[in-house]
Amino acid sequence: MPHLPESVDPAWLTPGAFRAIGSRRTLVRGGEGPVVDSVHEEVAEACARFGGHVERDASPGPYDLLLDLTGDDGSEAFTFTRDDGRTTVTASGRPGLLYGLFHVVRLGEDAFRGEARRETHRPALGLRMLDHWDNVAVHPVMGQVERGYAGGSLFWEDGRARGNLERVRAYGRLLASCGINAVAVNNVNVHRAEARLLTDRIGEVAAIACALRAYGIRTHLSVSFAAPVVLGGLATADPLEGGVRAWWAEATARVYEAIPDFGGYVVKADSEGQPGPFAYGRSHAEGANMLAGALEPYGGTVHWRAFVYDHRQDWRDRTTDRARAAYDHFVPLDGEFASNAVLQVKHGPMDFQVREPVSPLIGAMPATRLAVELQATQEYTGQQRHVCWLGPMWSEVLRFRPDGTPVAELADALVAVSNVGDDRFWTGHPLAQANLYTFGRLAWRPDADPLEILDEWIGLTFGTEPAAGVRTVMEGSWRTYEKYTAPLGVGFMVQPGHHYGPSVDGYEYSPWGTYHFADRDGIGVDRSAATGTGYAAQYAKPWAEVYESPETCPDELLLFFHHVPYGHVLHSGRTVIQHIYDTHFEGVEEVEAARRVWASLVGLVDAERHARVTERFEEQLRCAREWRDQINSYFFRKSGVPDAHGRRIH
Amino acid sequence: MPHLPESVDPAWLTPGAFRAIGSRRTLVRGGEGPVVDSVHEEVAEACARFGGHVERDASPGPYDLLLDLTGDDGSEAFTFTRDDGRTTVTASGRPGLLYGLFHVVRLGEDAFRGEARRETHRPALGLRMLDHWDNVAVHPVMGQVERGYAGGSLFWEDGRARGNLERVRAYGRLLASCGINAVAVNNVNVHRAEARLLTDRIGEVAAIACALRAYGIRTHLSVSFAAPVVLGGLATADPLEGGVRAWWAEATARVYEAIPDFGGYVVKADSEGQPGPFAYGRSHAEGANMLAGALEPYGGTVHWRAFVYDHRQDWRDRTTDRARAAYDHFVPLDGEFASNAVLQVKHGPMDFQVREPVSPLIGAMPATRLAVELQATQEYTGQQRHVCWLGPMWSEVLRFRPDGTPVAELADALVAVSNVGDDRFWTGHPLAQANLYTFGRLAWRPDADPLEILDEWIGLTFGTEPAAGVRTVMEGSWRTYEKYTAPLGVGFMVQPGHHYGPSVDGYEYSPWGTYHFADRDGIGVDRSAATGTGYAAQYAKPWAEVYESPETCPDELLLFFHHVPYGHVLHSGRTVIQHIYDTHFEGVEEVEAARRVWASLVGLVDAERHARVTERFEEQLRCAREWRDQINSYFFRKSGVPDAHGRRIH
User: Is B615 considered catalytic here?
Assistant: First the structure.
């Protein structure tokens, strides 16, 4: 177990979480290597604290818990058995043993009660990955971590890798405990310094990989498609050029020399200024397959992002619809991607707004491997200054059935943009740790009830006493956030650049393709097939029909799909304008209520955590009021419709 | 004459401008010291180029031009005489001789024609000053020059003074040639590095002062009101504390040891985060007088800026009016300021918008010395990417009669924020040199016809052939800029932060006190006494009455003073909404026309200057179209009123 300064928060792996194991007798049996060592160390450390006892590969004596590695097949599954007053975890692969241990930790005393239980657990998704948008060199605009709200990077500082990797080990431990098995260590926007991680700076990546390996986590790297030019001095990065392919093959061979279990590459190509195959008249399949070919001999994978759109759109042009872009670009390529190329698709068609429909690209490429990308870092959802537990949103995405089958079953991998930094609470807002935890647990079991996961996290982190209060604060926080920000799925009413706080017209006349088209009569984007951009028709039935008409479109997505008058009556029975007013008043009231509940937990939550959340609540409330007043004023000024309840609109 | 790299533009002091003097015989008589040396060098250099001849203090031989210094009284006046086929400039002070020389340069051959002329010239305003908002250390947001659009600073680079002062000397020469006699060398926002210019880094200022002294220019310094705390380690900066007064007295004594003709201090106090006397419960008069007391023994002056307002205003609060702030803060202090304290007042009540009324503070403090502050750097007027010759605006300000007497006669000093940097054309946009020149000439003679000054500048810079074309491009450029940007005096529809390009609501819900209050029915700020903020009543008659009513308020200021319906009919006969549409279409058409005229001057203007302006015109046109379309779309969406002429609004 890594040794961290006292000041670093244990997150959900509190000492108390290990009491049940630590006060018992455990036998760790079979296998060797860093992962098994980690398992043994975890138990030993717990026993040192709570008076229990652990043996490894000893001759059978009396024990309460057997952690039994029976093979070497790399499997992540484990079987939990309760029999004859003893608890057994059996795994045929090292990672399974580790996950089994943390299962026992989560169960606590329950792991040692009852009889005749036997359950086998295996992850629904083989790859459960965090992408770090961490820069090696501090970017002049984006800083050390692009869209990071938790301090600096765990991996990089001021242009170089951090020397002390204890924090990285501790991070790996947290990730393993919730089931994450892959990390990409640098930003998908690959700048000059970061490009070199692939070649002469691979040693820095190898050191990180070594620290993470002890917790069953494979390391991935974001690379620049232009690397052969930028780093290799070639004249081209054309994926069909022999020289280019040779360059990547050789570079990849050297990567695997340094990191034998290297996971693969993550690529953002032809997107927001990043280089890509379009420059050479090649398709994205040709680009991805070239990298897949280089990785194939070693079992590596290329994650090819589908986030391709025109970010220099003319706002006057109403025919171009950014929401259509990923589908339009990629669906014609279905079947052309190599088997170790995974298309990584953001869960919504735009960019991690608080409410979007599920991307129509998901399910539309049956012959292509799919990773669904979520965003744990709260770029558009309060930047870890606001409580916004994203479990319900992610669960809705994973359960959505584009064409009968749920998203979670269509996907090979679930990826989230990490919300972690070198902050003492890991995530800036201590309650944002729940997003990290929930992501990992949902990736393991996408059909889990997110509220059960929340309760699990609360129990581990806070114990029993404050649990009900913390749950009250968190369970509805995503919908609360939705209420006081952009209404009814329209999105993007944020301050340009940093994306924090309201600016209704902030992106309205911009090149980013993110518009609401509000005028004095109505608001929303007509994406119907009949009269709009045709985006709705990218869905399979029934969704194409559901979304096509304002009569059947769900309220919460109405303005994403339709331009309607302010007087349009929602399924809720309220008009659009009255819905805007009501939700914005309600949202702020809900924040006020949550803040009061949190205040009541003083003394039940450790003082520093309580103080940090209290301070964040002050800012959340200030910001929520700003959202309420700006949104309400904007639409009152535009529509002229007074609030039915006569509340104050400025 | 300073020796600069060939690449640095001579601006209006082209070699050709010296042909008339340089081809004649000149006698420089009387006096010594750097200013007289500069006069002699100017003539000598011209003669070396054009075959003339210069002598200094020689026994009278035949000459065409006598530059005659008859005393040592420091006077800036000179007398120009034409008699007996000879031209004579007589001055009783060194600066007068220098200004007389440049008068002859401006006249060119005309200085040597005709007979029996005798004119005495003296500056209307004793202090004609440029304030540089240059930072010593590069500011993380504002850069090397705050609101600078002409490259880096002439004085500072990356935290230190530039070693080579030839460019500073050349700058001093340009300034002297248009009549400027004072420069403040650092930003009024005094950060940590800049604060130390007052004490241990005064040597760097002294070196600059030495270079400028040769052209009759005194150096001033922006200081931090908190200097006794920040630099001196005192516990307070309270202006009534004996220890604080002693600290300033000693610091000032050391400044004058280093720079005997030091001009004085410039202070931005209690403004936008800068420290000031309010922290100690003292008035701004008490603050200013404390510094005035320190400067008084040496003949120095404190320039105390009146730019004091609440920059953390709640946008919901309609009772607070930033426009009122300077008057409300300072008028009660009239008579309390020391005689060497000058209150420096921005020409308008807000912040250098393309159209503002004259500040009501001007003329309202008869017992207080006044400096009027203009902004040559085009922060809100196109940032030296757009042609925007500000002469007509400044002339309107200087001729305005708050209470019978023109502004120019109420003021002791005219100050402009400099538009110059280390750009090869000095001002980024070559045509922005005209703003620098016009400022100097208007400060000397505020009742001059600005178009005559423009012609003077064109003649010196371009010669005869392209003159008519350049005039066409420039003369109406301020009104053109006004047309395509924020309408009818409402101001501030700019992108937040950098202030370039349109954002109609960019400052509408901000803490900066800069609002337009547009709704579906109308637009504008009610600043009347009867129903608004009462700002209009800060003016003396007749202006208080003129501005009070929408019926008498000038069209171009209507939305500054009144909130009116879009259908309100202007004196022009057009409605407000139709005026918005019309001016925005016209503004862009005028840019297109000016661009065509400029293109026609190819071959008549030196190639690099022509290319630079051509490149800027591309950006100006792009940006003007963006302004047109965003403003028109915004108001069409809000008002629903179609363009009477059916033009395309998006």
Answer: no
